[in-house]
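Researcher: Please translate sequence to structure tokens.
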Amino acid sequence: MRVALYTRVSTTDKGQTIENQVLALRADCEARKEDIALEGHDYISGAKQSRPGLDRIFAAAEAKQFDVLVVWSLDRLTREGAFRALEIIQNLGKLGIGFRSLQEPHFDTCGPFKDAIIAIAATLAKLEREKIVERVKAGLERVKAEGRVLGPPRIIPHIAPRVLELAAQGWKAPRIASTVKYRTHAVPYKVRHPSLATVRRILAEHRNTVA
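Model: Translation complete:
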């Protein structure tokens, strides 16, 4: 069995290094008699999708250079919530690559309970999404009750959940504006990005929601 190891510490984790993670992961693989095909290490925030070490892992996955990705814990893989973690695991699965977390031993897609684990992860992601949507709805109702204007009504309520979701992950307004997409009403099927002003207005109106 060929495995890839991934470790990460944030740039804000002062004084911390990846050494403890690396030693524990290597020891686990040795105990399982697995061959380490490659390792990816990052000193960067887990909220960033593009990371040198993780990008190397993904490129190797596409090239079928390993069979299982092993991480110290799910939050080392991503800080972007259950959606992103599930997306990564599912994408690996499509390539025939398993996933294992050392700190969450129940989270192992290599065993007989693979489908059940993926289903549970999908449920958690759905619950996370629904929670965000409900908070946004509550915020919209509060703003409406206070008689405040939300801005263009056909756009803001539609994209607000996604904007707030990304903001909660630490994304800044300019990056959110260039990432979020919506379909216009005036020109059906035409996809646009919200303006930076629109994104900032949503964040201002739902400051308590994001917090």
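Researcher: Any highlights?
Model: The chain has two domains: 2-111, 129-210.
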